Amino acid sequence: MSTEQLLDIDPPVLSLPFELRRVRRQVSCTIRLSNKTQHRVAFMVVTPNSQNYGCEPNHGILSPRSTCDLTVTMQALEEAPRNMQCENKFLIQSLVVSFGATIEDVEILFNEEGHHSQSGLLNAEYIFPCQVQSVVPNGIVAGIIIVMLAIIFFYIVKKTLLLIWSLILLFIMLTIKLIRQSTLDAIKNWISGTLCDIFVDPLCRRLQDIVHGFERNRDRDTDRDGDRA
């Protein structure tokens, strides 16, 4: 039992989203402790700085083959560290306890001498915005993307159809206007031709006849004056 690992810690490195205090007051992440043994195992988490870090719960007892999720919170930083790295470490202690032990006994058991406990250091690192992975499942993300693409597609199709119908209506209106103009021109030409046939042409022929009559009379008068001479 002395060589048996009591707890599995997941993740092996604690990833803390990097945030400045002017953006957000605090950030959080989750640690999962798994008891893979057949024993009851007590645990206690020691944070590097109680003012900046918190862990809930920070101690407890895991039944055999059970797990426990811990929420680690970190107060957002006032300013970015010089090397942009997190140098803090979390100490996670564990030991086998009897079936009669309670959660209230955990801190006392770890402080008492004679108990063989295991200790593990959990390193922490900052995750910057470009490295933060989405907490939304990939399926939901894909669904959201598909819905957004569908909305954009239908919006474009709607605008395109409106443009097409507008162009069709404009073409129809221009065609009707041209037909009306052609019809009016044809009616005008017909009216003009009819008026010419009824009034203008007979009048012109009549005037020509009168002119020709005057010319013939003038020619006869000229011939008579010649004969008398």
UniProtKB/TrEMBL annotation:
Keyword Iron among record annotations: no
SUPFAM superfamilies reported in the protein's UniProt record: PapD-like
Record domain MSP: where: 6-127
GO CC annotations on file: endoplasmic reticulum membrane; plasma membrane
Protein name: MSP domain-containing protein
Keyword Methyltransferase assigned: no
A Gene Ontology biological process term: endoplasmic reticulum membrane organization
PANTHER family for the chain: VESICLE-ASSOCIATED MEMBRANE PROTEIN-ASSOCIATED PROTEIN, VESICLE-ASSOCIATED PROTEIN 1-2-RELATED
Family membership: Belongs to the VAMP-associated protein (VAP) (TC 9.B.17) family.
UniProt entry keywords in alphabetical sequence: Membrane, Transmembrane, Transmembrane helix
InterPro entries: Ig-like_fold (IPR013783), MSP_dom (IPR000535), PapD-like_sf (IPR008962), VAP (IPR016763)
